Amino acid sequence: MGKKFVVMIVLLAFMGLMLIGCVSNKEASSEPPQPQETPKEPVYLDVLQNSYSLSDSAISYTIFNNTGEDIAVRLSPKLERKVGDSWEAVPLDGIGFCGNPDRVEKTFSYEVPLEWFGNSLTAGEYKLSLERLKSDRDFDLKEVLSDTFAFVDNEEERSSGQIKMSVKPDTLTPSGASFILENTTEIEFMYGDPYGLERKNGDAWEKMDTISGDIAFFAIGHMLEGNQTDEITVDWWPYGELTAGEYRIVKGYSVVRAPGDYDSYEMSAEFTIDEVQ
To answer: What pLDDT, on the 0 to 100 scale, is given for residue 14?
Structure first.
C-alpha cells in the first residue's frame, strides 16, 4: 500500500465558516519493497498508458531523472509506427520546434497532442522518443529516451490502462465490496473516496441514481505509488442494497504535477450481484 496524504474538510454551518485540517500519515510495513521486473536506467521516459484510443486528444508521458543533477532534454517529440520489424517515422502536420533543450530536475510530465499528426495515425504499435543532450549549453546528443505503447481503434479495445481495479474475492455483497487497485506504471496517482455506480441495461451502461439525491464525500486524497497496490472497501449506502444484475463501479483519479496542474482519468470494475436463493 502506498503512502496516503489525508485532507479532511469539515463544513461548519455557523456563519458559513469552513475549517480545513491536514493530516499526513505514512504507514509502516515490514515487507521489503518489491523489485522491479526490469532495472531502469538513471534517466528514462515513461508513456503514461500502455494503450490509447485514436479518439484520445493527447499522449501523456513523464521523464524520470535519477542522476542527482539537472539534465537537458529537447522536447521535440518523435513518433514512430512499427511496420514489420522496423520503425517508420510519423510526420508532424505543420508543427515545428525551436530545438532548444529544457532542464529536467527529477521528473517532468507533458503531453503530445494527437492533432500534431493530422490524420496519419492508425491502430498499431508506436514508439515515442525524445533527445537527451549533453547539457543545456552543449547540444550534442547524449542519448535517445523512448517508450512504446499502442493505439487502438476505440475505447473498448483499450488495455486495462494505468490502474487496474478488481473486486477482492469473497467480499462482494448486495451492501458493499472490497476492491484491489493496482498501479501498473512508474507514476504516482491520487484518488479519492467518491465513486459512481452504473447498471447494465441490455448492451448499455446506465448511471444509477442515489436514493437521497445529492450526496457528499469527505475530501480525502489517497496517494498510490508506482508499481504498488491498495485495497479499498466501498459501501453501497448512497444507492441502497443492490438487487440481482450486472454493475460497474467508476472512480476518478489524477496525476498531480503542481497545485492546479493535473490530469484526470477514470478506473472501473464490473461485477454481478446474483439472485438471493
So the answer is: 30
Burial of 143-153, coded b for 16+ CB within 10 Å and e otherwise, reads: eebbbebbbbe
**Burial environment of residue 251 by CB neighbours within 10 A (0 to 12, 13 to 18, 19 or more):** buried
Q: Which three cell numbers stand for residue 165?
A: 481495479
Q: What is the pLDDT of residues 58-90, one digit of tens each?
A: 888 999 999 999 999 998 999 999 999 999 999
Measured CA to CA, the distance from residue 187 to residue 262 in angstroms comes to 13
Say what the pLDDT of residue 219 is.
Answer: 76
CA distances 138 to 65, 74, 201, Å, are: 18, 12, 61
Three-state SS at 15: helix
Residue entry with cell 498501479: 183
Do the beta carbons of residue 191 and residue 254 sit within 8 Å?
Answer: yes
Contacts with 10 (C-beta within 8 Å, 6 or more apart), sequence order: 18, 19, 20, 21
Burial class, 121, CB count within 10 angstroms (exposed 0-12 / middle 13-18 / buried 19+): middle
Q: Which amino acid is at 23?
A: V
Q: Residues 213-247: pLDDT tens digits?
A: 667 777 788 999 888 999 999 999 999 999 999 99
